[in-house]
């Protein structure tokens, strides 16, 4: 029986993992995860590329994966270093004949794939990549990648007209591994140069990483609490755990498969009926797919200053003070500040909140849009490269949004989605004694601010669209 190196990437699960299943059938498996040290680097903006919330969630997910592999007769080798080098050394050490892993689509990840593959060729080791991160398989699209519609609605209609979701692969229940497989420990945050931290008092989600937690949340959301049938009614709420599925962080690391979620929703529809809410959650999975395929279509343009549209006419500001006030939630715009403080203290922000702070960043402050995307990349526990950078392109007006003037007024949005200012007061306790009307009207708030209220007066000119 030949040795097979299995490289875990953003597929930290045993269920619906075609690559792992094929590896287990192929030979004696050496499961490996490499924590890339390049992700710990400080950005020129003053924060780490990968923040503490993301690292904590990743390490928890690796601990869970290691435990689940041990239960089925294997283990997980965890190394810290440069993946293409560490993986090659392990491939040579274990005399493997094949490397199996999942396929990624964006530049840095595919560069690592290519460099690793080149190294393997010097030892005549074969590398096989499997597509497994999307709901719709790339080969099942009704068009070639360079014909992916730029507008989501067009994409959705064409995909749904030829709807085909491949069945979930059976869970891997047994793996043979070499008897001399190296025993490693998942590093701690301190080992990686991060300080450990406690959950913030206002953190109502308290993420815990891992496949076991992901499947537990799926069961809770769909079956125990039956929340899936009410999703469309609650999805724009701002505060709490159950107004949305909270699958995003698990999807980002592949602790759960999008197809697993899809078929669980389909089971719930068979048992309790289909409605707008069950469709809308599948619709969200399709949005996620869309950004994967957009990333595949446009490549590095997703990350360039001119964006997907190659728009070189836009001028972006590099005002560090405004950027810091946005990050810290001290802009003087209560709805924006509440959102940004939640993100800073918990690593999470609702979809509605993300749209508003991104719009404010690009349309009101006019700052370099990719600065905001970099901060989200560092801070979001559910960061996913395609969705994050695709959404920032979209909201900055240099992406795939068919409306060039899309704008979210922080005043009208707050009045619509937080009419009693409950969310704002939750994250801005200094405004707890201020009336709803004053909090929601920026100019009135400015008039009453004095030494007794420690809240910044906005230096941002009032937008005419407010």
Report on this model:
With 466 residues, this protein is an alpha/beta fold. The protein has three domains: 1-132, Rossmann fold (3-Layer(aba) Sandwich), CATH 3.40.50; 134-167 and 212-303, Serine Threonine Protein Phosphatase 5, Tetratricopeptide repeat (Alpha Horseshoe), CATH 1.25.40.80; 320-448, DNA Cyclobutane Dipyrimidine Photolyase, subunit A, domain 3, CATH 1.10.579. Helices cover 45% and strands 7% of the residues. The protein has 19 helices and five strands. The chain has helices at residues 18-26, 52-71, 83-93, 107-121, 152-161, 211-224, 231-234, 248-252, 258-272, 276-298, 320-328, 334-346, 351-364, 369-379, 385-396, 410-417, 422-427, 436-440, 442-448; strands spanning 3-7, 28-36, 77-81, 96-102, 126-130. Strands 3-2-1-4-5 form a five-stranded parallel sheet, sandwiched between helices. It is globular, with a radius of gyration of 23 Å. The chain starts with a strand and ends in an 18-residue tail after the last helix.
